[in-house]
Amino acid sequence: MIRIFHFRWSYSLISILALIAACSIFRPSSGEVVLGPGSFNYPDPRAGLADLSGYTASLTTSFEGSENGQSVQWSHVYVMRYSKDPLARLLTIEGEPDQPSMMAEMNGAAYEVLEDGACGAGVLDPQNSFSLRMEPAKMISGVLGAEQAGQETINGIETDHYTFDERALAESGLAVSTGEMWVATDGGYIVRYLVTTTGDEKYFGEEVGGKLTREYELTEVNQPHAIELPATCPPGMIDAPLLTDATNILMVPGFSRYTTNSTPAEASAFYQEQLADLNWSAYSSNETPEGVSQEEYKQLLEQMQAMGFDQPTEPAPDADEVFLEFQQGDQILSLITWVDEGTTKVELVLSNATE
User: Fold this and answer.
1) Domain containing 293: what range?
2) pLDDT of amino acid 143
């Protein structure tokens, strides 16, 4: 119960705001809800983040208390690095046994890295992005009625300092909280946030009591962020055009496959022109059996087989098969196209030049 507490209460204040706007709110036994005495309202902790070109956001949530009569102590640490252009997010997680140790979204793919270092990837679904659920700022609560406490420079950023208690969290009568937040004077985003909440089972749930601390901080604001994945992760989605009559399309991180009515030679000419415009250079060009070594082609076939995809026939391409390679930085893009039962198949495989 207590391990998911901070997710459950992160959204409560926005819901309360909506209700306040619609009607008067009353507790059945104590009358109107008591909010903070100050004049500063900040209902959405994610405000202003979308306007930043990059940042590192960290959140440490820790609990010390008891559950079912047993002493309990835990700490969760979330650190998200964000880049707006190119769009990329990388989140590391410590202390959550049921979560991956790292999650990332970049190059059209969603990645998860497990504690043993294994990395998996899938096509990124923007409607089910981990960033929608696990942005650190989304795990803290907004405030209603915080009090001005001056101005300070935090992490090199001019901020307005505010203090608040459980009333500004709409939790009066449920727990006792003390909190502070520092909001960027220019930009309106939270630079630092600290709140400590002490409560019993009325707040945390049955047989649970203790102290919960949440500390959030934003650093490296608007600084360049070169977000890199672990070497164990597969490449991202292939950014290359398809022939206009492409059918039976399959696109996953590092691999694309489809069928076309074009000939292998026509597909070859198409990609040589299109990829040159995308700053890919010819790495090797082998369109005849004499131009491809058995070892080169065998290695490519083994790579495709390991990925679970179809391959053209062995041992080397014939007149109806084309094998081309292109390079961009440390990446190799391999094009394989061949005729199968009267239809041309096209496959693109992305790999690292060092593999």
Assistant:
1) 247-352
2) 96
> CATH number of the domain that 138 lies in?
2.50.20
Q: Among 14-28, 49-63, 86-100, 203-217, which is the least confidently predicted range?
A: 14-28
Q: Which amino acid is at 12?
A: S
288: which DSSP letter? S
Q: Position 189: which residue type?
A: Y
The H or E element that residue 299 is part of is helix 294-306
The string of pLDDT tens digits covering residues 138-173 is 999 999 999 999 999 999 999 999 999 999 999 999
> What is the arrangement of strands in the sheet containing 40-42, beginning at the earlier edge strand?
40-42, 143-154, 157-165, 176-184, 190-199, 208-219, 54-67, 70-84, 87-94, 102-106, 109-113, 119-123
Residue 80 to residue 58: CA distance in whole angstroms: 6
DSSP 35-64: --SSSEEE--TTTTGGG-SEEEEEEEEEEE
Tally of domains in the chain: 2
SS3 177: strand
Q: Is residue 227 part of a domain?
A: no
- Of residues 202 and 11, more confidence is placed in 202
Place of tokens 């039976």: 248
31 with 179, same domain: the answer is yes
Q: 231 lies in a domain?
A: no
Query: Coil, strand or helix: which one is 132?
Result: helix
According to the per-residue pLDDT averaged within each range, which of 99-113, 171-185, 228-242 is highest? 171-185
- Domain end call among 180, 202, 219: 219
Beta bridge partners of 75: 62
Q: What are the residue ranges of helices labelled H in 191-253?
A: 201-204
Residues 208 and 290 in one domain: no
Task: Give the span between the Cα atoms of 51 and 162, in whole angstroms.
Answer: 22
Q: What is the Cα–Cα distance from 243 to 291, expressed in whole angstroms?
A: 25
**Residue 132 shares a structural domain with residue 183:** yes
**Model pTM score:** 0.75
